[in-house]
């Protein structure tokens, strides 16, 4: 193992951290060692020779780039009893240790006090689980007013790993730590109003919370309060308080809503804010409109499936002139199926008609070597359901996609990790676990809706979730996928580190993908190949050559501004990798209800951050893979996913990725060349204040482009003079298309 020892050796002067504040900071003083030994949990163990660890970042980013397996972190800390004395309730101590990724165990003075995985010794199942837990204040493991040794055993496979995060501290659990202002309900829209219910809940204890809930709506542009109201509120464990409000429908702008509960007896307060969603996408018209990309590719002699995406009042009748021999169109569903044997570019004209009129679109069917000519538009189970995905959840998602999204071009239903059985059958074939009783039946169901089906595996022996991978069974697995009718494979590096050389070369990075590419090529089916190896070896420079249709360029996304914006705004370096059939994948969408398991919450991105997310990913020509519970799509989320002019930017046939054409501390401009000679431009406000942004037209690429269209609102914008001036909300965007 090649460790950058010199960088990591630091002399720690303080033997443990002291603090008199209510919060004991734990972000400093950590030590680290790769390996595994039960002795390392002991407070007596001498860790003097260990390296200093920076817990603000994963171990990959501190000189342990190619290290997978176990590692231990240790820190010494005094826990003063004064923090207990000062606390209003004195029940328990809370530890914030960022993430324990992929899974971890925490020992306090040699005693196991927490693990973030569920069963047995399968520590990998924690999957970047939180390192946040409580220990009863009377637990004898705590050495009050003395030195304590915290030792963390953590397992890492693939991608970011270790103990890392923003928040490292110890504090007494406060009265308000047990309170949750639950804003996970949806906003309901009437013609002129919108309403929502929120709940105040207590997670435990016998305390009766009695006090006031202050509700405030602020205009973030001017910081003025536009509505406020105070209500009595009382709740306790098992008896929540619900507050329902109705507001005038606030168009074209997100207002800030603040909920503050003050407990009368203790005087303690808790506050939560959220942005009110606002709809920009115009209502779908009753007249027919054909949406979706201008091109679609399939290989000769392989099964063909394309549903003409079209909106308009039903029933719609479909027509396709010029279809190549071998294809037939179902004129009531718009689904084209069949097999084309000859290579070639086939120009086709689609017409969709209803009682109000008809719409025509020129389209090219390209039968050749390349598939996935435009980025995949679909759904993936991971950000919503994590390892709890099952047949029913997939069917629910497929139904929702067919009902609400396929008319706009959405087509993939992708099952991520968690479908695989614990062992192969006697022939060595991969089989499903009990959550997926009939994969072929499920795939047929999805295909009958005109949609496509995706699946997930790893080139290693195990997937990231600890399920079976394809290691040494690649041909067999590719064949099984083909037999089931799979159309998309996400292939996740994960435990491949265990079988690849310690310090992989570029060839080592490519190898597992070349092996599976060859296996997929033996199957008579077009299976889109999506690499998931977090960008290692700058995959955007060679993903296409190895036969990838897309490749992840980063670690896993989370539903926070920090995660989404850090990933999205760092993609300039990958831009040249994008071309028709080959796209950079900055990871899946984090809008709607997400949760990576059975407990879903509304995305923590504000409405404006969500506009930024969809706009930026479309500019980047990224696969758009919805990661939410599709059974609960609210109007706002649906509006984000059904703007045909925004989707057209993502699906543009030129297949270029946007470049960062301007950046300062408070805003950025990203520009993407489009097939018709126009350009799409995102003007992103990266600050947390409203901004009036003035772009010098000559310097920002407006030259010669006289027409400016606001893509979300689908309206032309009047602009004259040498500057383009626009107001952009905090963390928000103006997405425009400029043309001649
Ligand atoms: C990795 C990937 C995720 C997901 C999980 C499944 O973390 O990056 O997108 O596929 O594995 O275990």
Write the layout of secondary structure elements.
Blueprint lengths: L4 H4 L14 E3 L5 E4 L16 E2 L16 E10 L3 H5 L5 E10 L1 E6 L2 E5 L13 E8 L10 E10 L5 E11 L6 E4 L5 E2 L3 E10 L6 E11 L4 E12 L5 E8 L7 E8 L5 E7 L13 E2 L4 E4 L4 E5 L2 E2 L5 E5 L5 E3 L5 E5 L4 E11 L2 E11 L9 E4 L1 H4 L5 H15 L6 E3 L24 H10 L3 E6 L16 H11 L3 E5 L13 H16 L6 E5 L17 E3 L8 H8 L14 E3 L7 E2 L6 E2 L4 H13 L4 E3 L8 H7 L2 H7 L8 E5 L3 E7 L5 E7 L5 E6 L10 E4 L4 E3 L5 E6 L4 E7 L1
Parallel strand pairs: 20-27, 28-29, 28-37, 29-30, 30-31, 31-32, 32-33, 33-34
Antiparallel strand pairs: 1-10, 2-3, 2-4, 4-9, 5-8, 5-10, 6-7, 6-9, 11-13, 12-13, 13-16, 14-15, 14-17, 17-18, 19-22, 21-25, 23-26, 24-25, 26-27, 35-36, 38-39, 39-40, 40-45, 41-44, 42-43, 42-45
Bound molecules: alpha-D-galactopyranose (GLA).
In short:
This protein is mainly beta.
Describe the structure.
α6 (474-484) packs across α7. The chain has five domains: 6-19 and 177-275, Immunoglobulin-like, CATH 2.60.40; 23-173, Jelly Rolls (Sandwich), CATH 2.60.120; 289-367, Sandwich (Immunoglobulin-like), CATH 2.60.40; 377-646, Aldolase class I (TIM Barrel), CATH 3.20.20.70; 659-739, Immunoglobulin-like (Sandwich). The model is unreliable at 1-20 (pLDDT under 50). By secondary structure, it is mainly beta. The protein is 14% helix and 35% strand. Strands 34-33-32-31-30-29-28-37 form an eight-stranded parallel beta sheet. Strands 3-2-4-9-6-7 form a six-stranded antiparallel beta sheet, with no helix packed on it. The chain has a six-stranded antiparallel beta sheet with strand order 38-39-40-45-42-43, covered by helices on one side. Bound molecules: alpha-D-galactopyranose. Alpha-D-galactopyranose (GLA) binds at residues 382, 416-417, 463-465, 492, 532, 556. Alpha-D-galactopyranose binds next to loops.
